[in-house]
Amino acid sequence: IDSMEVSGQIIDAVTKEPAEEMLVMLYDNLSDTVVRTERPFYFAKTDKQGEYTIKNVKADTFKVFALQDADLNYLFNQDSELIGFPDSTFILSGTRNRLPTFAMFQERPSPRLMSKEVKTFGKVSLAFNLKPYDIVARADSSGRNLYFDRVGDSLNVWYNQRNESEWSIYLSRDTNYRDTVLVKPSERAAFFEEKKLLFDGSSKSGSISLNPARPILLPFNHPLESIAQTRIQLLEDSLRTPVTSAQITLEGRELKIEHKWQEGAPYELLILPNALKDIFDLKNQDTIARTYQVMREEDFGNFKIQVNGLDSASQYVLRLLFKNSDTLVDSWIVQNTSTHSLDLAYLPPGKYFLEIVTDWNKNGRWDSGNYDLKLQPEPIFTKALEELRAGWQVEAGVDLK
Fold it and tell me: Do the beta carbons of residue 384 and residue 353 sit within 8 Å?
């Protein structure tokens, strides 16, 4: 009589929460392709706690696989389906068998270009089915000024050329993806008749609160190429004293101003006409005026975090997240050490989380797993930190072990 019992728990790889309503399937056929071609020999569904129990199982060696069965066919045949699998098969011999907990994840799909948008001369927006982290774009830049930026799932290619001839963008990712996009520029003359270099930030009037540990960042509608430093004036305190020690640089479409801000002091920023030039040789035509009020140290809190239990042979990505774990405050790459300290000042009060990713492939971000390659998702450890209050310093210890 087949009287053995198999139980265990399934969790979500990212949230670590129990995975409910997942199929857990046992196969006595140990082929790697069986989860795509055959229905399971035994199966059960997980409950709200991610727990499952399969009864009346025979003594045998089984492949175990978990599936969010989107099309209800008991087969892994859709990229959108969540999957999970342990690292080995299991030999069932005792009456009750408790399997190790393993995680569900969605495989990262192969990159695919979804759409190309060319609304005006000077910009091509390429939308992908995923964030184009490692999509490499190149083009013949002869006589063409190129700039690339990534926004969400899109790759924007900015260009300036003296004619309207067609040209190509070559896309690649490792050896698995190659694509070519033909660009047919729209009317160049019409673009330069209408387009201006414009400030792309908030139009709200009044003084802007400034974190004393942060730079001023001003976004513009086009990638910036050069600055006329003498046409940017930064004035400090009520006497409007000129600041000469500020560092003014360009980062893509942003103007960045760094300075050792005086706590509680007012600042006025004036960007005079023709101070900035973009990749189209367009200059700002109007004066941009902004006023700032630097906040005080007592308005913020500090963290001192000690991370222990790291493997000195591994690389980690540490991320500080604000509120509901959806706002990235800062991130760090940590390697060649078993401990790491974070001393973080001038943070707004609120709830924070520390996320630690074991970066197996050392690409600086979390990666999902892959069934065919037998890769598990990279481990994520998340710790909720004590709530930070204004004027407080919170000391926290985190141990991965």
Answer: yes
pLDDT digits (tens, 9 = 90+) for 196-205: 999 998 877 8
pLDDT score at 74: 95
**Contacts of 37 by beta carbon, 8 Å cutoff, 6+ apart:** 75
CB contact set of 370 (below 8 Å; sequence gap of 6+): 107, 108
Phi and psi torsions of 34, nearest 5°: -60, -30
Distance separating alpha carbons of residues 316 and 398, to the nearest angstrom: 14
Task: Evaluate whether 352 touches 303 at the Cβ level (below 8 Å).
Answer: yes
Q: What is the phi/psi pair of residue 190, to 5°? A: -65, -35
pLDDT at 141: 66
Q: How far apart are CA 372 and CA 330, in angstroms?
A: 34
CA distance to 59, 76, 116, per residue, from 38 (Å): 20, 9, 39
Query: 6, 53 in Cβ contact below 8 A?
Result: yes
